Amino acid sequence: MSHASPPSLSARELQILRLLLDGSTYPAIAHHLRLSPHTVDTYLRRIRAKTGAANQFQLAVVACRIHGLPDGQVTPGQVIAG
């Protein structure tokens, strides 16, 4: 995972990252945004590809950086979504 400048993410991708960081599951994100869980999964795969995050925990660390939060504010329990 790179520590370079944040990747260019769409407004929807940023919205999904924020919800994931808040502890929402894929079905909860889908319901909140009126998307299918499959669409949420597709967005998260694209975000992982853009950011180089290998797993949900690394994705949460990226989300913290993008949203200006210290890395230490995320715990593995927050990123078990699905």
Describe the structure in brief.
55% of the residues lie in helices and 0% in strands. The chain is mostly helical and 82 residues long.
SSE order and pairing:
Elements: H1 11-21, H2 26-33, H3 37-51, H4 56-66
Helix pairs in contact: 1-3, 1-4, 2-3
What can you see in these coordinates?
There is one protein chain. The protein is mainly α. The chain has a single domain (11-79), classed as Winged helix-like DNA-binding domain superfamily/Winged helix DNA-binding domain (Arc Repressor Mutant, subunit A). It has four helices and no strands. α1 crosses α4. The longest helix has 15 residues, at 37-51. It is globular and about 25 Å long. Residues 76-82 have low confidence and may be disordered.
What is the 3D shape? Answer: globular
Provide the CATH superfamily: Winged helix-like DNA-binding domain superfamily/Winged helix DNA-binding domain
Radius of gyration: 12 Å
The CATH topology is given as Arc Repressor Mutant, subunit A
How can the largest sheet be summarized?
A: none
Portion in strands = under 5%
Question: What's the pLDDT, averaged over the residues?
Answer: 79
Helical proportion, percent range: 40-55%
> CATH class, anyone?
Mainly Alpha
DSSP strand tally: 0
Order of helices and strands: HHHH
* Estimated structural class: mainly alpha
Number of domains: 1
Keywords for this entry:
82 residues; mainly alpha; Arc Repressor Mutant, subunit A; globular; disordered C terminus
